[in-house]
Amino acid sequence: MKLDRITSNPARMNGQPCIRHLRLTVRRVIELLAIYPDREELHQEFPELEDEDIRQALIFAAAYLDDRIIKLPENNETAA
Fold first, then answer.
1. Fewer Cβ in 10 A, N or C end of the chain?
2. Residues with Cβ within 8 Å of residue 7, at least 6 apart in sequence
3. Contact 20/8 with Cβ under 8 angstroms?
4. Which tens digits make up the pLDDT trace of 40-65?
């Protein structure tokens, strides 16, 4: 899978993966998606952020997460 919008430069943002050489890290994009559930509002605040940037940031983040099973204590069950 080609992630051509994710860039990394040791001289910029401490080498963290960024969106298209902008000073906008993949981590920040994921955080912004949580803060701005309305994509239109997100685009108003960050007009340089394109839908393809967001898609590739999500793919990049998902690729670095391990699938693992974590046993939770039984008292943390939620009621439906």
1. C
2. 17, 18, 19, 20, 21
3. no
4. 999 999 999 999 999 999 999 998 88
